[in-house]
Specification:
Layout: H1 8-13, E1 44-45, E2 57-64, E3 67-78, E4 81-84, E5 90-91, E6 96-97, E7 103-109, E8 121-128, E9 144-148, H2 153-156, E10 164-166, E11 169-175, E12 188-193, E13 204-214, E14 217-220, E15 232-236, E16 244-254, E17 261-266, H3 269-278
Parallel strand pairs: 11-16
Antiparallel strand pairs: 1-13, 2-3, 2-7, 3-4, 4-9, 5-6, 7-8, 8-9, 10-11, 12-13, 12-15, 13-14, 14-17, 15-16, 16-17
């Protein structure tokens, strides 16, 4: 099993934000836009994708009739389980989950351009949150699960529900249980995924301030783009406080709260119970 030999991942995981603009111009975009670049684009490419936690971040590649039609993001949360946004695995043309008899979905952890340094696997089952449909879009119901054919998380590791650390992840991971430890406006979060404006096959992370946590949605100032949907949103804490704590699943851009921002499904009790029920 891989052992970390440097602290370079800390620099990649959390870029120092020196200043945020106090005022943002009004936007005419729909609140369901999947992306917002807020001011200067501060996303950073992750080049060491085999280090934790980036090794858990997966490119979700969907192919229909031999044509790659989608590229989204997910995160390994169990040996055979990937957490993502429901709309990432939804066929909007028929308003239902993608039909795995007609499409192929490959999940590629730690993808780095043309390089696939870790084991990939194909989806064998898809599960969306109860009641999700096209009309709900990027809402608090926009979360889902991909079950894999192979237990690749046993070798790669995964973002754990309860606190867990390994030789390859000495800080460790956990998933939020309860309230945010710091109020929005003071709390900063990390986000990482596969934006399509950067080829869709390379990991890009962002680090930004949260601005609101309301009605099952967490809003923040991280820069994102199409393809980032399904990305893990987390805070970095000491090992004694959970290490890297997963707090959300990125789903969309958002200009409905008075500032240009982005948003995630907040991992509340309902989402956590859904995860527990569907873990494999």
């Amino acid at each position: 099993m891989e052992t970390l030999t440097s602290n370079n991942y800390i620099h990649q995981e959390e870029d120092v934000i020196s200043q945020f603009l106090n005022d943002y111009p009004s936007q005419n975009n729909s609140i369901d836009n999947e992306f917002e670049i807020i001011g200067v684009d501060e996303r950073k490419r992750i080049t060491q994708t085999t280090l934790a936690p980036f090794r858990y971040v997966c490119h979700v590649e969907i192919t229909r009739n031999g044509v790659k039609v989608k590229g989204r993001t997910g995160v390994l949360i169990g040996p055979k389980t990937v957490l993502t946004a429901a709309h990432c695995i939804w066929d909007e043309s028929v308003d239902r989950l993608e039909d795995l008899s007609k499409v192929s979905i490959r999940v590629i952890p730690g993808r780095n351009g043309s390089l696939q340094p870790l084991s990939a696997s194909r989806a064998v089952k898809l599960v969306a949150s109860p009641g999700y449909n096209k009309s709900k879009g990027a809402s608090k119901a926009d979360y889902g699960i991909i079950h894999l054919n192979d237990p690749i998380g046993n070798n790669i590791g995964y973002w754990s529900l309860k606190y867990r650390k390994t030789k390859a992840d000495t800080l460790g991971t956990s998933t939020l249980s309860g309230n945010l430890p710091v109020a929005p406006g003071k709390l900063f979060v990390n986000l990482c995924g596969y934006p399509t404006d950067k080829s869709g096959q390379q990991q890009y992370s962002s680090y930004g301030k949260t601005v609101l946590n309301k009605d099952g949605m967490l809003h923040y100032l991280n820069d994102t783009y199409f393809g980032h949907s399904g990305s893990p949103v987390w805070i970095k804490r000491a090992a004694s406080m959970g290490g890297r704590v997963l707090v959300g699943i990125h789903v969309a851009g958002d200009d409905a709260i008075g500032v240009k921002a982005n948003r995630a499904v907040f991992i509340n009790t309902q989402v956590r119970n859904f995860i527990i029920t569907n873990l494999k």
